[in-house]
Amino acid sequence: MFQTKVQISSSPLKIGYENRVMTMGSCFAENISKKLNDVFFLTDINPFGVLYNPVSISNSIELLIHNKPFTEKDLFQNKGLWQSFSHSSLFSATTAEKCLENINDRLSNASDFLAKTNFLLITFGTAWIYEEQKSGSVVSNCHKLPATAFFRRRLTVEEIVAGYSKLINELTNKLQQLKLIFSVSPIRHWKDGAHENNISKSILLLAIDELQKQFEQVHYFPAYEIQLDELRDYRFYAPDMLHPSDVAVDYIWEKFCETYFDAQTSKIKKELEQLAADLSHRPLFPDSEKYQKFQANITKKKEELIACYPFLNDRLK
User: Fold this and answer.
1) Domain 20-258 - what CATH class?
2) How big is the CA angle at 13 (ends 11 and 19), to the nearest 5 degrees?
3) pTM score, two decimals?
4) How many whole angstroms separate alpha carbon 260 and alpha carbon 180?
5) Do 107 and 64 touch, CB atoms closer than 8 A?
6) Res. 91: pLDDT tops 80
7) Cβ distance 51 to 122 under 8 Å?
8) Which helix (H) or strand (E) holds 150?
9) In the chain, where are the structural domains located?
10) Contact by Cβ (8 Å): 85, 143
11) DSSP code of 140?
12) Which tens digits make up the pLDDT trace of 147-204?
């Protein structure tokens, strides 16, 4: 094969259907989360929206730990919208009340989920951060404000390690069952420049490597290496030539499954993939007898799955 294989040992860490998985980070984190969600894992995906840099991710996790509601003083108004520097524009609204409702409902639910989470998947995208000039705080989203409103700089390995050492100690003191799986997003930040992008990714990789040495509950999944080495051909990229294509995401997902799923989880996943395919079917004639039988078979299949795996009851109803 014309391919350089990334050797990944099967991890002693195993994710099962009885576990809860929270994912935070770049849009690649969302890709893997969606795959987990599609096969009925208990997941919570980016409760603040897509996050790119380690500080924004860390700050967001701190907010979840303490579950302190946002107030109007945590928002700003720009071009008719109320927004938060801690959130993506998905949470923005034309009134402060609605914006706060969007933020605090999601915050409360995600905080409850984190308290019972077994696996926290964190994907770093870039080591570059934006600090608001007025407050000096790192923002998760600039919301298209003028560049003059921010100071841009690159994090160091030492900064990331120091910040996450403190965070991991806090997390594991509160959530002793929690394991962390880090990855670096294969998406290239080309606006930074080719060389600058590589330096940024190197900083992220070195920081994660150091955290692995310090904490036994920290693990690493090589999504970045799979994309750049195994899938280095441009046919594995989206039309912008920067993001992984759907084929590449599927491939990396399969590698993830091989690494973290045992035989039982893989068996359940396969059965649920077929159910998901059936549920996504859109008939031409929904009132036909044939389709009614098809629906009855789906109901029967759900009942059989719940009988075999009672923990799927709430997820399949």
Assistant:
1) alpha beta
2) 140
3) 0.94
4) 12
5) yes
6) yes
7) no
8) strand 150-154
9) 20-258
10) yes
11) S
12) 999 999 999 999 999 999 999 999 999 999 999 999 999 998 888 889 999 999 999 9
